[in-house]
Amino acid sequence: MMLLLSLLASFSVFSLMAVGGAITLIPEMHHYVVESHHWMSGQEFAALFAIAQAAPGPNVLVVSLIGWKVAGLAGACAATVGMCGPSSLLCYYVAQLWQRWHASPWRRAIERGLAPLTIGLVAGSAMLMSEAANQHWTGWLLCAGSTVLAWRTRINPLWLLAGGALLGFAGWI
Amino acid sequence: MTPSTIIPSRRQLFLGFFSIGLSGFGGVLPLAHRMLVQQRRWLSEEEFTELLGLGQILPGPNIVNMSIAIGSRFHGVAGAWLAVAGLMLAPLVIVLSMAMLYDHYQSLPDVQGTLRGLASTAAGLLLAMALRMGTKIERHAVAVLLAVLTFIAVGVLRWPLLLVLLVLAPVSVWLARQRGRAGEKS
Predict the structure, then answer these.
(1) Of B148, B58, B5, which Cα lies nearest the Cα of A95?
(2) CB atoms within 10 A of CB B177
(3) Out of A44, B69, B96, B154, which could bridge A40 as a Cys pair, Cβ 3.0 to 4.6 Å?
(4) Where do the domains of chain B lie?
């Protein structure tokens, strides 16, 4: 029970820090579940992220998987509710006001000011995830290859994930 | 083309977000746009951009925030619940089933190898996302500097996110306001 409350409380705080979405929280979540509580290894963390990416649906599902890994189904619920609850409540009220602030120059300033921070946070998450996921040079090679393909082409990411999974299955990664 | 939009019923709201949740791989935003604006016409292009901006500046999962804003616009609190429930329900069941399978078979070398390949590729997709966002950054030294500072603080120095945000967010918004003022004058 304490474990569930801890998950709920921690993810409720994360919820309000997730500027730019759940992805930007990766370093913070990694610190929480891997470094300070040792609930899973860095590789398991990377595996959960990979599963969430390979499944349909929003990115935030990685949070549900982390909760599930720590405390089963109840943990998944606690983490998901914590992650979505406070931010949803905030969004519900701000959405009503947002249209009224249409002409405010501060609204544009908030959008414009938070954009670079989001980019920095996503880049930080991407770096941490690469370090956690790539165990050998072959992993780094695959990672670099999929980066270039996903960045420069319009290929469906699902094909890249399928290709990566296949290479891993063949024992090359 | 007239931008006449349609008001969905509660049932349509739930089912609409249910299909968005099920069909989006690696992020659901492009699909949400196609369905909400082009196919079902619940929102005009401007309304979508507006709500997307809102979902992105508020903390929390972007698409969940958008569901809340769209659901509540049509059917208040009930609409917000229905939209989020529709969005999350099926993906949650699928992803947990996948995780249980993984847990059950994770000791098999084939499964470990597959997950390693999957994880490296997923990290690559995230890097590509960072690169794409990076190339679209506002062409201004201050914006670039703030992005780099944020990256170093969180990604390299591993400072706590809350601390970084409490310092950098107000500074960045204030500086953006100054850029806005300069733009108005010129």
Answers:
(1) B58
(2) 17
(3) A44
(4) 1-105, 107-136, 137-186
List pLDDT tens digits, range B47-67. 887 787 788 788 988 889 989
> Which residue in A84, A118, A133 is closest to B60 by CB distance?
A84
Counting Cα atoms < 13 Å in the Cβ hemisphere of B62 gives: 24
> Which positions in chain A touch B93 (Cβ < 8 Å)?
none
Asked if B23 lies within 8 A of A56 by C-beta distance, the reply is yes
Q: Hunting for tokens 């730019």 — which residue is that? A: A20
Q: Which pTM value belongs to this model?
A: 0.85
pLDDT digit string, tens, across residues B19-39 = 888 876 655 776 788 788 888
Q: How crowded is residue B51: how many other Cβ atoms within 10 Å of its Cβ?
A: 24
How near does any CA of chain B get to the CA of A2, in Å? 22
The pLDDT score that the predictor gives to residue B91 is 92
What's the CA gap between A99 and A163, in Å, rounded?
Answer: 44
User: pLDDT tens, A23-39?
Assistant: 889 999 999 999 999 99
Interchain contact A8–B (C-beta under 8 A)? no
3-state helix, strand, coil in chain B (%, to 5): 80, 0, 20
Candidate ranges A80-94, B2-16, B48-62; pick with highest mean pLDDT: A80-94
Which residue from A87, A116, A149 is facing B58, i.e. has the nearest CB? A87
Helix axes A61-98, A42-54, angle to 10 degrees: 60
What's the rounded Cα separation, in Å, for the pair B145 and B164? 14
Distance in angstroms (rounded) separating the CA atoms of residues A12 and B60 = 10
